[in-house]
Inverse folding.
């Protein structure tokens, strides 16, 4: 049968398994779970970033001019005639911008343009005259296209979407002109077809870019794509084209992390950056440029209505990249960004272009991912080890410190260099690792508590069991070496008693039950731990499982109370015999108390746990209780116990025992009474006489020793049987003198 503690030991590998699973999850990213968590980490870093130290808001180098509600109120409802859009372009151009980016995608002709309006007229002579005049009238789309062509401008084309077939076109940009190297198709956003925009008619292909924004799965916009795939062909995004033209770069180069497949995710080559004009634009693997959101940033938008304001300051648009876009009021979708705000497409493009111009990038490199992985493995192993070895509060505290330190380091790196270390993914793995280890440790503690409850059941009071269960690591339940005191109490001449009761087994049971219950009660009252109830013998010990600085005192006090309560025990036995109409003999006890180093712990089996004490201290106590019958006094005390309680009890040296593993013999004392007895002149006389007897014996002065024995026998309170033993020993030593260097130990047992 596998016990709970065995299961707990085997579960210690669980934190390592959780750590390994977390590492694989980070690498494989099943279902994009870790990517979603990593994105939340990017949001957290942006929220934790402080405002500018100098308090000044940097002026954007790119600006979005939006046809918002204010512009619609001044210029009429949307859609505007294309010539009015051309006027917007002209007004912007008059402010001498660095570049104009026309972001709206206009897939259909202007219905207000003359040629389109004429289609709705009823055929007739008047219609014919108008048709003849059309070659002399410029169409609105032509006006807008020509205006854009005459200025330094980039025009957007659309991708995908639900548009009719006539609006769908082949990828318009010339890839070979932009990317001269043979770059693989990477894991960029893919679209089946391009969507025309009427202003493209007069535009050169190298001044076209895909107008596309791709929010993440949670609906938040965090990146602006620099590259897209349209019909299997790699196309530049609107921002990349604008940045390239603004930098007067002839081409751009894709830098890819992998040209094959990621062995964990199965993805194709991942983009790390786009290089042009000697500058490197770091990107996400999908070729998206990370957007930075500052707490104190200046506005990136300007209403198109402000262009007609004579008070417009020239610096607002001069030498800037100006992105023309539709506001939400004109039908442009509003994109939700981290932090809960919204923005239009034109503002997103302007933000991205501002970051490119100013060189303010957020980046996450392969080296960062490797460093995260190495740190996660190192700290994960340490925390997994701590979780199963240290108390739960300590391991949780270490986890909090590690995770908190990691978040602070990630924040510092973000503020100083714009690097995007992942503060949440590794933190989640570490937290799960520590929590699993804490769970294993809690299970182990509960298993240990259950085991020790079984091991201590009936041995100590319930309060001690509950206190020990709160922390099984205390008290040496797994094995501990400590100093303790052992008490062994046995029934004197019990074999002879059983012979008299050979026809009365029930009487034997009553005697043993009464004796065991009586002894157990005294042990519990003295704060002791019951070790064994073995027939006519009871074993108890002190200073385990709980700490007891006065363990020797409490053991001796228990022995004294047993002797004092012996009459009560015999009265109960007498009553039991009278009820059965059978006489039961009175009991006499012999007790040994010994102190020394010992081993305590749960030394039972899995099926039968048992908290016990073992060691030489127990063996010596057993020897003392076996020999006690020949001395006479009921309580024998070992030398170490006597040294601990010498001033609290009346102790009389009566013999010396061999110590198998020690060079000097152990003195054995009889416990004669309490401090009042110790202070009495009668005891003082006996104590002095015993000291003289042992001095004479060590001097081999047998005559003097024999005379002192007789003097001691005549003293009031002496034990006659003890001095009979001394006389027999002296007679033996006369006949067989001990060798030189004799230590006073009698080594031949007398009958």
């Amino acid at each position: 049968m596998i016990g709970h503690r065995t299961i707990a030991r085997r579960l210690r590998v669980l934190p390592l398994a959780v750590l390994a699973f977390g590492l694989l999850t980070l690498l494989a990213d099943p279902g994009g779970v870790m990517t979603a968590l990593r994105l939340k980490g990017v949001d957290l870093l942006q929220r934790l970033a402080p405002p500018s130290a100098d308090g000044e808001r940097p002026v954007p180098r790119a600006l979005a001019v939006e046809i918002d509600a204010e512009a619609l109120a001044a210029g009429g409802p949307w859609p505007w005639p294309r010539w009015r859009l051309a006027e917007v372009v002209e007004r912007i151009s008059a402010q001498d911008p660095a570049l104009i980016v026309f972001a709206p995608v206009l897939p259909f002709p202007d219905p207000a343009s003359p040629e389109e309006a004429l289609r709705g007229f009823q055929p007739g002579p008047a219609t014919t005259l108008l048709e003849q005049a059309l070659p002399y009238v410029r169409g609105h789309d032509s006006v807008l296209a020509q205006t854009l062509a005459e200025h330094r401008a980039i025009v957007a084309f659309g991708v995908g979407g639900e548009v009719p077939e006539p609006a769908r076109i082949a990828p318009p940009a010339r890839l070979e002109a932009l990317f001269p190297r043979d770059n693989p198709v990477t894991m960029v956003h893919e679209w089946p077809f391009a969507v025309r925009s009427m202003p493209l008619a007069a535009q050169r292909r190298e001044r076209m870019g895909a107008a596309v924004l791709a929010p993440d799965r949670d609906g938040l916009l965090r990146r602006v794509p620099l590259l897209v795939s349209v019909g299997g062909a790699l196309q530049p995004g609107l921002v990349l084209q604008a940045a390239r033209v603004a930098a007067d770069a002839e081409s751009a180069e894709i830098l890819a992390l992998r040209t094959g497949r990621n062995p964990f995710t199965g993805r194709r080559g991942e983009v790390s950056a786009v290089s042009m004009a000697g500058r490197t634009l770091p990107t996400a693997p999908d070729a998206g440029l990370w957007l930075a959101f500052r707490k104190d940033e200046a506005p990136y938008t300007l209403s198109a209505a402000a262009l007609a304001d004579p008070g417009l300051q020239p610096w607002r648009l001069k030498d800037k990249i100006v992105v023309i876009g539709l506001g939400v009021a004109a039908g442009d979708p509003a994109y939700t960004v981290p932090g809960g705000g919204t923005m239009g497409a034109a503002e997103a493009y302007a933000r991205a272009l501002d970051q490119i111009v100013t060189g303010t990038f957020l980046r996450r490199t392969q080296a960062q991912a490797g460093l995260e992985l190495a740190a996660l493995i190192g700290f994960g192993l340490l925390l997994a080890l701590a979780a199963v070895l240290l108390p739960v509060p300590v391991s949780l505290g270490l986890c909090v410190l590690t995770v908190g330190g990691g978040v602070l380091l990630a924040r510092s790196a973000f503020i100083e260099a714009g690097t995007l270390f992942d503060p949440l993914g590794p933190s989640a793995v570490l937290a799960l690792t520590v929590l699993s280890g804490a769970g294993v440790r809690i299970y182990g503690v509960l298993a240990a508590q259950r085991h020790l409850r079984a091991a201590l059941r009936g041995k100590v009071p319930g309060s001690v069991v509950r206190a020990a269960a709160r922390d099984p690591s205390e008290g040496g339940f797994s094995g501990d070496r400590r100093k303790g005191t052992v008490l062994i109490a046995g029934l004197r001449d019990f074999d002879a008693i059983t012979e008299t009761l050979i026809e009365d087994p029930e009487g034997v049971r009553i005697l043993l039950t009464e004796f065991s219950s009586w002894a157990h009660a005294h042990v519990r009252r003295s704060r002791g731990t019951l070790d064994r109830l073995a027939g006519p013998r009871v074993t108890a010990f002190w200073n385990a499982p709980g700490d007891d600085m006065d363990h020797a005192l409490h053991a001796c006090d228990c022995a004294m109370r047993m002797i004092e309560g012996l009459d009560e025990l015999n009265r109960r036995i007498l009553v039991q015999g009278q009820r059965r109409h059978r006489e039961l003999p009175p009991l006499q006890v012999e007790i040994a108390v010994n102190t020394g180093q010992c081993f305590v712990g749960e030394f039972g089996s899995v099926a039968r746990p048992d908290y016990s004490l073992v060691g030489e201290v127990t063996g010596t106590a057993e020897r003392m209780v076996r020999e006690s019958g020949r001395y006479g006094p009921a309580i024998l005390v070992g030398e170490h116990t006597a040294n601990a309680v010498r001033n609290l009890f009346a102790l009389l040296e009566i013999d010396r025992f061999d110590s198998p593993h020690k060079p000097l013999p152990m003195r054995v004392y009889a416990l004669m009474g309490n401090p009042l007895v110790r202070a009495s002149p009668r005891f003082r006389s006996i104590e002095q006489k015993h000291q003289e007897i042992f001095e004479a014996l060590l001097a081999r002065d047998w005559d003097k020793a024999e005379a002192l024995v007789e003097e001691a026998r005549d003293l009031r309170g002496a034990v006659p049987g003890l001095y009979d033993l001394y006389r027999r020993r002296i007679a033996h030593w006369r006949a067989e003198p001990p060798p030189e260097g004799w230590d006073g130990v009698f080594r031949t047992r007398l009958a």
The mean pLDDT is 84. The longest strand covers residues 589-602. Residues 425-456 form the longest helix (32 residues). The radius of gyration is 49 Å.
